[in-house]
Amino acid sequence: MALLEAIELSKTFQKHKAVDDLHITIREGEVLGLLGPNGAGKSTTISMIASLLEPSRGEILYKGKSVLKKSEIIRKELGLVPQEIALYPEFTGKENLMFFARLYKVPKKERAERIAEVLSIVGLSDRASDKVEKYSGGMKRRLNIACALLHKPKLLIMDEPTVGIDPQSRNHILEMVKQLNTKGMSILYTSHYMEEVETLCDRIAIMDHGSIIAEGKKQDLIGMVQDQDLLYVSVEQQVAGFEQAVKEIDEVLFMEREDFRYKIGLKQQAEILPELFTLAHEYGIRIQGIDIQSPRLEDVFLHLTGRSLRDE
Amino acid sequence: MIVTHAWKDIKRMLRDRKALMITVLMPTILTAILGLSIGNMMNGNTKLETIPIAVVNQSEVASFKNNIQSGETSDTPVDFAEIFIENILASEDLQDVISYEQLSKERALQKLENGKLSTVIFFPKSYNQEVLNVMNQPSSKQVEVTLYQNPDESLHNEVIKGVVESYTNQLSKSVIAQNTMVTLMMKEPKLQQEITSSMGEVIQKVNETNRPNISVMREPFGDIESLSGMQYFTAGMAVMFMLYVGGYSAIYVRDEIRSGTYNRLRSTGMSFWHLAGGKFISTALLVFLQIIFLFMFEKLVFGMEFTNIYLLLLMIVITALSVSCLSILLTTITVVNQETRLNELFQSVIIPFLAMVGGSFISISMMPEPIQMFGHNVINGAALQGFTYVMQGYSFSELFGPILALLINGLIFLVLSGLIIFRRKEVFR
């Protein structure tokens, strides 16, 4: 059942169309991943869903009711984790939580208990009395999430919640998201990190130039590029002309270079290794390693947009 | 929700060391430095223009009986007040310093009340006769020249008092010389020649003798008192640095916008009215506490007088509310134009400018007329006028002008905010 549905959503800033005729559905109890490069329109979409920004056109329905007509229906059930550390650094963790608990109108007698609960969820109980300015980046991110959980939201929107933090804190946050989802919370999760989305999300929507260009379960999306195999070739040195020669092989769909490693897209089950070794010999290149992989989500993104997500 | 926002802003300010340095420490230090170093020089007018005064000469010409040399009595008319006017006030030396006019008492006092004059010198009807009486009988009752003075012009007042005192001293010495010579001649009429030649002794006696009963009496105009430098600068610094509190209110909103906290706040259901209401309350309270602290500090450390604590509190409350309205305007502009550099401009340019024209550093009366008009009516200038009036002992009814100016300032800030909100509704939905 759809918890939230955005229909033909558009937003134009002066002459720039940031979101164009977007349709997206968040189902109850699912984690929906929203992938897209910078400028794809993710943040604008999130702002419209959170009723912070008025769409130029379209409709947003929350539990079947129009959010545009009455934003209160979503605000009290929505938790927003912004990409920025949206906290007061001069306050302690507990003071920040107390402030937001008041704003979310958590009943006075439940506040202390609820604050202790979210501190426990994010693993900051023992640092609750420290000022946020003394927290590490990872701790600030976790408190950033905690503030959005105080009122037990039904829908949690997380905008790049793991940007710029250490692997340990990232794992903690990913684990936390899984647990929240297990308890029935619906989550809209945006990230640059493909592996996070692959791990967490039930469904994934890929966004580019203001529109959803693909949407579905991970396997469905990967199925879009299933007719490809990927060959990774590590070499000792680069020699001019080798890359062009490989690209001219009929079975090669594309070829990219990362330092001394080539990523080669092949037609499914193509057999090019003998030809590759021959060319390497001709150009005096010594091949150090070869790896054949199945397509991943990143390859889907590359296939759909012609760009790598990380390069944006 | 408004109280929650207000409390949050108060806590932020109280924990912001830089803000506290600017809003509390700096005015305290500056007040002490300026108040102690410049002192009384600043509470009046220091301009080098001529000092406007009026002379009310009601004294009647008296007759001086001259019988010393010839033995015959002859009446010589004397008018000491007129001598003062013609020989002193009209002298070339004083023409560049003092401009005087002779007026009736009513007219002179009216002009003094309107601030057109610095001092009114009043010679009573019996002045000349009383001076003569003192000459003849040193024990006669004291002769008084009355000075009605504008309390806002105390430096000028000192100058005029000095001139009048100088004249009366001179007159006193003449009286003493007269009395001494007459006394000696009455004792030894045969030695008249020697006495005349013994002027050196007479003069020495004059210098050794206490002043007779001719004195200058300063008459405060109504019940108004002059300000001390400490009082003036306490008020001056308070009204300047209260503007920083209003500015910080908007700076905090700008920080909230930049950090994404503002959007998070909005996602909780907060409207702009909650935010603005919080700003209003927090700014009013912080300005109130700031000014109270400053006044209390100067009172406890330097013994500064409040004169009327209730009127002072009233002025502080109205001033604080007016600054709150200013903080709402600044907040509104910041929310509409999130990249604005208004806050930096406000702190680095607008506040020092307002402080200058509002009289925080130098008396407004030193400035050209149009700037005076602006300075008296702008928020900090009106507040300064109100505070100085209170400390000078003005009554509640006389505070009406500054209070009205402060209320109008606040109203203008709110109306401007309203217009901005009306024009950019989409930002505030």
TrEMBL record, chain A:
It holds the Pfam family ABC_tran. It comes from the Bacteria. SUPFAM superfamilies: P-loop containing nucleoside triphosphate hydrolases (SSF52540). Residues 4-234 form the ABC transporter domain. GO terms for molecular function: ATP binding; ATP hydrolysis activity. Transmembrane segments: none annotated. The keyword Transcription does not apply. SMART domains: AAA. Keywords: ATP-binding, Nucleotide-binding. PANTHER family: LINEARMYCIN RESISTANCE ATP-BINDING PROTEIN LNRL. This is Antibiotic ABC transporter ATP-binding protein. It comes from Pontibacillus marinus BH030004 = DSM 16465.
UniProtKB/TrEMBL annotation, chain B:
GO terms for cellular component: plasma membrane. Gene3D superfamilies: abc type-2 transporter like domain (3.40.1710.10). Keywords: Cell membrane, Membrane, Transmembrane, Transmembrane helix. GO terms for molecular function: ABC-type transporter activity. It is a multi-pass membrane protein. InterPro entries: ABC-2_transporter_component (IPR051449), ABC2_TM (IPR013525). The chain crosses the membrane at residues 20-42, 232-251, 272-297, 309-333, 345-367, 399-422. It holds the Pfam family ABC2_membrane_3. Residues 19-417 form the ABC-2 type transporter transmembrane domain. Its main location: membrane. It is found in: Cell membrane. This is ABC-2 type transporter transmembrane domain-containing protein. It comes from Pontibacillus marinus BH030004 = DSM 16465.
